[in-house]
Amino acid sequence: MGVVGLRCRECGKAFAVSPSYACDECLGPLEAVYDHAGVDAAALKARIEAGPRSIWRYADLLPAPYDPDADLQAGLTPLLPARRLGEALGLRRLYIKNDALNPTWSFKDRVVSVALAAARRFGFEVAACASTGNLANSVAAHAARAGMEAYVFIPAGLERAKVVNSAIYHPTVVEVEGTYDDVNRLCAQIADEYRWAFVNVNLRPFYSEGAKTLGFEVAEQLGWRLPDHVVVPIASGNLLVKIAKGFEELASLGLVERRPVRISGAQPAGCNPVARAYRAGQAWVDPVRPQTIARSLAIGNPADGKYVLDVVRASGGAVGEATDEEIVDAIGLLARTEGIFTETAGGTTIAVLRRLAQEGVIGPDEVVVAYVTGMGLKTPEAAEEAAVSSVRIPASLRAFETAVLADHRGGTPQRAPSVVTG
Ligand SMILES: *Cc1c(COP(=O)(O)O)cnc(C)c1O
Ligand SMILES: [Zn+2]
């Protein structure tokens, strides 16, 4: 078992397992190839269930060996039935996959853990990435844990909290003047000149496979069963494509019964190249210039955009979008109905979930999983708009009763019965 090579996703040309990412014939992206011949499904399932409480329980299906010294135990995050949010949206069997609960508070820990395990195997000493924010947090933390030097490249002017969440691990943080797409182009040039492990450039075939674990885990947590419909946020599009691939691998290995899963995508209206192409019936994605509060999804030229369109259309899903206002509103809705505080990417997912439910794209009895991929303290500016303000009072019972119980809530206070003793 295990990874046996890389293959071009466009022309199929085979390559050795190596830190390369583009086909030398057609420039298509490379993808990991495994040999799963003769795998015993029951034995594999038992191995997974007895494995580490992290993404590495799926090591048989990942393209790098488990490396505990470089690992922060990403994964195995909660899958919660969301009854109250479901009621608000008219969905009876809704689940939230809360992937904000990772070591650096976003799903990026999954892809970075796999990429850096591969990087160490290839002998790299420097970790790097082109990031919209969360990836930089994760690369900086995992590099610190592994004792690697780190350079993280982000567009200038990101949320303060995201910059601090990288800087604390002591990488070199490079703020590049321009959009993420400019950062990405620069990093591809640097990766050609220096032997650094750019997790999402030269190590992309390994990085990208880490996202399959968000498909594996949901199936395992549903009792080795596939859901009916999932809603996934889109930046580069990798996560969505790999969740679908994860479901497909489990079915072809016989770990779950094969059944159709509809895959829907979510984008902010201020960076909606895939949603636009979906609506226009196009098979390709035209780049846009991002202008949205959902900075972690602000990729105007998504590398996997056209594969997202293929997956979504073949599955019978849709790609929806949400305005900044709807994103802020959805952050508040998720928090007050389910007690989960997400960043703007999660707000985008919940806002699009709501819209797809309203439009009937998602049916009321489907088993639906919405992927919440990052935590709210990363984008406090957006959350402040959705949060209720506090009430400030002098420290007296009378002030509490008049200012809080009577004024603020508007009702007559119900006094507690006095305690009778003796
Ligand atoms: C990066 C990111 C995504 C989407 O990732 P892609 O694989 O690039 O589509 C979703 N949510 C959050 C919070 C992210 O940081
Ligand atoms: Zn090719």
Automatic annotation (TrEMBL):
Source species, domain of life: Bacteria
A Pfam family recorded for this sequence: PALP
Tryptophan synthase beta chain-like PALP domain: residues covered: 73-374
CDD domains named in the record: Thr-synth_1 (cd01563)
Assigned keywords, A-Z: Lyase, Pyridoxal phosphate
E.C. code: 4.2.3.1
Cofactor(s) the record lists: pyridoxal 5'-phosphate
GO terms of molecular function: threonine synthase activity
Similarity field: Belongs to the threonine synthase family.
Protein name in UniProt: Threonine synthase
Species assigned in the record: Geochorda subterranea
Gene encoding the protein: thrC
